[in-house]
Amino acid sequence: MTPSQWPLRFVPRRSPPLWRAVLITVAAFAGAMLIRGLLLGLDQAAGVSATYFPAFIIATLYAGQRVGWGALILVMVTGYFGPTAVISNVSRNAVLIQFGLSGAATVLVAGALREALLRLGESKAAEAEVQASLIATEQRFRTLADSAPVLMWVSRVDGTREFVNRAYLDFLGLDYETALGFNWRALIHPGDLERMSALEAASIASGGDFVWEARYRRANGEYSWVRSVSQRRFLPSGELAGYIGVGYDISDAKQAQADLTRINDLLAERVQAALAERDEAEAALRRAQKLEAVGQLTGGVAHDFNNLLTVIIGALDLMQRHPTDEARRERMIEAAQGAARRGERLTQQLLAFSRRQALKPELVRVDEVLVESEPLLRRAVGEAVALTVAPGAPGSISSIDPSQFEAAVMNLVVNARDATPAGGGIRVETHTCVLQAGEAEDAPAGDYLCVAVHDTGEGMDADTASRVFEPFFTTKEPGRGTGLGLSQVYGFARQSGGAAVVESTPGKGSTVRVYLPLAEALAERAQASLEAQSAGHGPTRRILLVEDDVSVGEMVEAMLSDLGHEVLRAEAAAPALTILEAPGRIDLMLTDLIMPGGMNGVELAHAAVALRPGLPVVLTSGYTGETLGAAAQAPWPLLAKPYPAEALAAVIEAVMGRAPETV
């Protein structure tokens, strides 16, 4: 026990039992008696003070003020009434008062001293308890920190370590004291040092915490990726005291990230290769599908033209065998002409599908054309199926060929009629819409007029719906359709700058939508009359006929001669220019578009007009191909093959009506 601790051991925190207090008091008085015997040389008053006051102090300190007061009262009573006077030579009252006051002061001081000693003891006990708690807490923290698998440290503001855990020591390979003073920045990889310094400066400037990743050198000399997180710690006054941080090895995560990046790159390469293979396979599939479509197309065309040629050849053969049978000849001529017209329609449908037919676009109000076609559509549908025509785009204008549009709508309605059972319905409607890029095949984004034909028929599955626009593909029974109706619709829509799409669900009917680009305004155009004159074909003209096909040239020459015109023949552009350069009257040039020799009909027409300004020109072709654009821009009319003599006469008269008499 230290000198500062022994008073605390003598003064108990709790009052002792009564018997112990009495025992201590008696012992104190016994000691006082002994002291009194030693002090016989003093006067009686001094002897009393020297004898009893220490007893009062001891009793009060040990047992409390109550025992001290009791001892004081006991002494005063025994000293005043005892058989032997404690104080005999002075006034008993004055002595007792003086003794009582001194004793009371002694008890009070001793009581205050006891309370002070008790409080001091409690403070010492609390301090010892706090100290023990701090030691236990620090031990628990150190145990916890040492058991953690991550690096942990506590540092000052300048970065000097105040505490590090076992994982930190193992990472550096140093003892505790050496690690506290070690410059940890020396462990940073040279390639990361500049970046780390910049991050540290930025964190200090912003007053934020430190979070970074860098490579640190381990005790074995190898570098490992460590992610560090340091948070600020403050003193009770609010002043920055330093940082407390943790760090953990992320080398495996970095390696996994690098492996993942490498795998992603490899996967991207393989995906790219797979996509390339897929594109190549799709291209091969498209080529195969095109070949299949071409094979189906040529087979269908051959079949239909063989039927037509059978009629024509048979009719000509019968006329040749029976030249004098007028009635038979007329019937055969009508049959041959009918077959030829069917062949013409078949050719136009093929050109529509290939988008190479010679359209004659006009700015028209589509709803008006649809309303005008309604009676014909109703006759085609019949009474077994209900037809509803609902124009919903009044005033909407599109640049289309009206006749081809009517044919397309008729094909759609007839197709819907054949797919709809009795009692079903067909609805034809129009509305304006806005298409996004790629929404309807490859039609460009913009404003469109949609012509939709709905039916309540059996519908189609996805595979069938994907082939409905293929030429000669049909779901009808043999002999009920050619398979070119929807192909004509598709070709007309694409050639008009739009698109055609089909939607169908088995058991719920089908919908075909034709999207036509909207025009901004309706242009007023004067339509030239192409009616053939019923009486005569006008005056005789001197016409230059340029046709590379000998059979066609002979036929057209015969038609022109029958119309009363004089014909000059040329089979290519070069001989035609020679004739044009020579002197002589030429009233009109009728030229084919596609010819050998490197110059087409449009180029020949320009050269002819340059040689003979004002020369009337009529272009003619059954297949315009890439020259369709040039022909459409040319100022001369285009007469589509095949054509009858009446159409030829009408176009000649129309052109010559605007031309000088002689060129």
Description:
The chain is α/β, with parallel strands linked by helices and 663 residues long. Helix content is 52%, strand content 17%. Helix 3 (44-63) packs antiparallel against helix 4 (65-81), helix 11 runs parallel beside helix 12 and helix 16 packs parallel to helix 17 (601-611). The longest helix has 71 residues, at 251-321.
Total helical elements: 19
**End-to-end span in angstroms?**
146 Å
Helix content: 40-55%
Strand order of the largest sheet: 2-1-5-4-3
Shape: rod-shaped
User: Assembly state here?
Assistant: single chain
In total, the number of strands is 17
Largest sheet: 5 strands, antiparallel
Low-confidence stretches: 1-6, 40-48, 80-90, 521-536
Structural class: alpha/beta
The proportion of strand residues reads 15-25%
Tell me, rounded to a whole number, the average pLDDT: 77
Computed CA radius of gyration, to the nearest angstrom:
61 Å
